[in-house]
Amino acid sequence: MANSTYEIRAKNGSSEASGKQFKIDRSHPGQWTITFSNPPINIFVPATIVELRAVMADLKTDPSVRVVVFDSANPDFFIAHLDVAKAVAQPGVLDLWRDFVLDLASSPVVSIAKIRGRTRGIGNEFVLACDMRFASRQNAIFGNPEVGVGLVPGGGAMEWLPRLVGRSRALEFVLSADDFDADIAERYGWVNRTLNDDELDGFVDALVRRLVSFDSDVLATAKAQINRFGMPTPTELQSSNDMIFSILASPGAQARRAKLRDIGYGVPSDFELNFGRYLPSFGPADGTAAKQQA
Amino acid sequence: MANSTYEIRAKNGSSEASGKQFKIDRSHPGQWTITFSNPPINIFVPATIVELRAVMADLKTDPSVRVVVFDSANPDFFIAHLDVAKAVAQPGVLDLWRDFVLDLASSPVVSIAKIRGRTRGIGNEFVLACDMRFASRQNAIFGNPEVGVGLVPGGGAMEWLPRLVGRSRALEFVLSADDFDADIAERYGWVNRTLNDDELDGFVDALVRRLVSFDSDVLATAKAQINRFGMPTPTELQSSNDMIFSILASPGAQARRAKLRDIGYGVPSDFELNFGRYLPSFGPADGTAAKQQA
Amino acid sequence: MANSTYEIRAKNGSSEASGKQFKIDRSHPGQWTITFSNPPINIFVPATIVELRAVMADLKTDPSVRVVVFDSANPDFFIAHLDVAKAVAQPGVLDLWRDFVLDLASSPVVSIAKIRGRTRGIGNEFVLACDMRFASRQNAIFGNPEVGVGLVPGGGAMEWLPRLVGRSRALEFVLSADDFDADIAERYGWVNRTLNDDELDGFVDALVRRLVSFDSDVLATAKAQINRFGMPTPTELQSSNDMIFSILASPGAQARRAKLRDIGYGVPSDFELNFGRYLPSFGPADGTAAKQQA
User: What's the burial of B220, exposed, middle or buried (CB within 10 Å: 0-12/13-18/19+)?
Assistant: First the structure.
């Protein structure tokens, strides 16, 4: 599926080449708005993570900033997912990611994800690492499809989710590798709140105006105290991170990833719009459950 | 109350004698459906737990199974509760239960409870030990009535619930010893989701089809990681288990349990349908709050 | 704003002078109902905490009591907040508060907060220390405005909330320093349940009748087991408590607290009714975000 939105973006070309996937708006005092744009579908490549680390370094040089809002320039994709092949070719990038997660979560700056469109895999792990998540009822979709492609989420989902939504809802989300809508995300507790799309901007703006009106040292002190509970440790994050490379080499993962090749993975496609729906059609590697497939 | 459903089942006789309380459907590749049937009201007796342990041992011999679904043949009772007198006469059975809970929760097989009817006491502790719980909005009822009969839940409720629903909702549930409907169970977070009864089977079937299409080692790896959070330890479970015998001997528990004798406990009755509602009428053992009773 | 309710109460004078801010109804066997009344707006002063400690000591002398219900004589304010200036002038009072929190939470008596009106700051920390919280949908409002006045919540909010509602919702609540209604409080999980105002009394009464009909040693045993999870430690509570005095001395806190002086703080006023709404208008101490303010 290549709709007109994608075509327009494709003409503009990918921003990856220019090294500028994040557009930063510093025009509001105390606030940075960081908009992710990596056309055509906001995929995370190694360069995205490198640039994200640089953005965080910049953030530390601006003592006036109290709040950072992350959003997306693409209404269909907040973050598509990681380009696994490229990430694997550059293994250190996953260590950078782990450092980014810990850095963002422990930063004195308050981080808010304003979520429209799909956010899957590392995208869901990105919003989980933000201090707060607000989602569009009509447009936000959440997924960690890794299990369905023979992998496990290695960037934090298995550490953040059980703490936020309990063991059973975390198991459902990660093991089913399905897409979940924003209402379920609110009921399960993995976003703070789901709002009607036309109320989302106003809600986040009002919250940001409050936060930037407060003193940064007080915000930082309170955040640090609350962080004593509900934060994954570096060791825990590393433990999931470490799994990626061993599991990638398994025959099951190889077989599943082969099936992704001509299906529209990583490009504008119906597959990327409805990732979760496609996964059961791959079937198990050992064929034992083959009759089960429609 | 002996309605026609019960009469029909009573004619079929209890399956306890035959040692087959669990009917296993292995006709779907990758999936076992284990249906509990111990007419007339699906009570847990020591033989139930012994058989359940054997079922788990069988499960381990089938490497193709990825998902086990537990349901009930009785639309009114998923699991009535434990027959406490019989369990006490065979004390080792509670150790078997603790082992079953840990075994099920740490098994590489994904367990799903599909809940219709009442599930009380050890029944609620059974579904809490399952990886996921889906409940019929119209027909599922949850309760841990132990406190109301002078006991405490000894089979895991006091370990699973605070982790899933927080301290205050766990206290309300356990201390009130009341019946809770499926909508509250969803709002409190102790089931994954409550669905309309006519959508429950389809929802669980679709989820199972997804899970059996994935690779068993990947499901097992992800489950093990998520289990790092939200799992009770053996020591914690043993600690509640140990309380049962000392508290059973207390005069309060003896007095309350005597009141259960002619009220319909353990047999088809209005008492078993509405267990929670009856408990306050027993009054406190020391009579101090007697005037409070209606 | 001085409406007729306030005027009537003002004529009756503050109960602070008499040392009787808590009216105790012991007329129901097994139950104490403790009604807070410190006209005109139910503010906590050092004498309140001293009296509360005495009430808890009395409670221990009555072995028949199983349940204590806390409510308010003022329909607009459950507990306004702490009078910070008076508390600071009597520093030991915050240690008394920490001891009260631990004492109430670990008491064999079951505590229930029945919440109508605003409960902010130490008021929210009071209800968090109760075993269960039930709120009026129409009238209950929750807030920890400390960050907005240059302080941090020092009485337990940063310890209880992340355990109950998860890291992200706790951060939103504490950092935004805003007022939250009862429906959000239920969705976030920090009250057990929100009920229509005309159903609140009946619901709590029925729950209390159940609890007082049960045996006190059984209630106490179950509560102690559940308390193994979700209870802050004394060290953690002390850690937030310790922050108050250092942060109070900061220029930011001094500047913000100066702004409270002529705005209606601590007296019947529109400010006290809508505390959260006023906070962003103070602006940051360093002026960096001044342009942001409306």
Answer: middle
Structure tokens at A229: 């509970």
Q: Determine whether A57 is exposed, middle or buried from the number of CB atoms within 10 Å of its CB (0-12, 13-18, 19+).
A: exposed
- For the stretch A169-228, pLDDT in tens is 999 999 999 999 999 999 999 999 999 999 999 999 999 999 999 999 999 999 999 999
pLDDT at C198: 98
**Whole-angstrom Cα distance, residue A266 to residue B57?**
43
Nearest to B158 by CA among B167, B150, C107, B149: B167
The residue with greater pLDDT, B122 or A291, is B122
Contact flag B161-C226 (C-beta cutoff 8 Å)? yes
Cβ atoms of B112 and B67 within 8 Å: the answer is yes
B163: nearest CA in chain C? C229
Of A110, A210, A222, the CB nearest to C279: A210
Tokens of C144: 């920890």
Amino acid sitting at position A232: P
Min Cα–Cα distance to chain A from B289, Å: 38
Count, residues in chain A: 294
For residue B230, give how far its alpha carbon lies from the nearest alpha carbon of chain A (Å).
Answer: 5
Q: How far apart are CA A204 and CA A114, in angstroms?
A: 7
R_g (Cα) of chain B, nearest Å: 19
Please name the member of B151, B243, B288 whose beta carbon is closest to the beta carbon of C64. B288
Look up the ipTM and state it.
0.92
DSSP label at A232?
A: P
Task: Give per-residue pLDDT as tens, B9-36.
Answer: 333 444 344 459 999 999 999 999 999 9
Rounded to a whole number of angstroms, the CA Rg of chain A reads 19
Q: CA A284, CA A261: separation in Å to the nearest integer?
A: 17
CB contact (8 A) between residue C110 and residue B175: yes
Which chain A residues are Cβ-neighbours of C167 within 8 angstroms? 131, 163-164, 226-227, 229-231
Of A168, A177, A187, the CB nearest to B132: A168
Q: Where are the beta strands (DSSP E) in C88-223?
A: 110-120, 132-143, 179-181, 193-195
Nearest CA in chain B to C209: B292
Number of residues in chain B: 294
DSSP B12: H
Q: Among B148, B158, B284, whose Cβ lies nearest the Cβ of C226? A: B158
Q: How far apart are CA A223 and CA C88, in angstroms?
A: 23
- In eight-state DSSP terms, residue A229 is S
Displacement of CA C118 from its chain's centroid (Å): 9
Spell out which residues of chain A touch residue B129, defining contact as CB-CB under 8 Å.
none
Residue A241: closest C-alpha in chain B: B225
Under a CB-based contact definition with an 8 Å cutoff, are residues C250 and C151 in contact? Answer: no
| Burial of C92: CB neighbours in 10 Å, binned 0-12, 13-18, 19+ | exposed
Pick from C294, C269, C238: nearest CA to C76:
C269
CB contact under 8 A, B30 and A170: no
- Selected for mutation to probe chain C from A69, A124, A192 (highest C CB count within 10 Å) is A192
Strands C179-181 and C132-143, bridge-based pairing? antiparallel
DSSP labels, B269-293: SHHHHTHHHHGGGG--TT-TTGGG-
Q: Distance (Å) from the C-alpha of residue A225 to the closest C-alpha of chain C?
A: 7
DSSP B199-233: HHHHHHHHHHHHHHHS-HHHHHHHHHHHTTSSPPP
Give the tens place of pLDDT for each residue, B246-289. Answer: 899 899 899 998 998 889 999 999 999 999 999 998 876 555 54
How far apart, in whole angstroms, are the C-alpha atoms of residue A272 and residue A149? 13
pLDDT in tens, B144-202: 999 999 999 999 999 999 999 999 999 999 999 999 999 999 999 999 999 999 999 99
Q: Which amino acid is at A48?
A: T
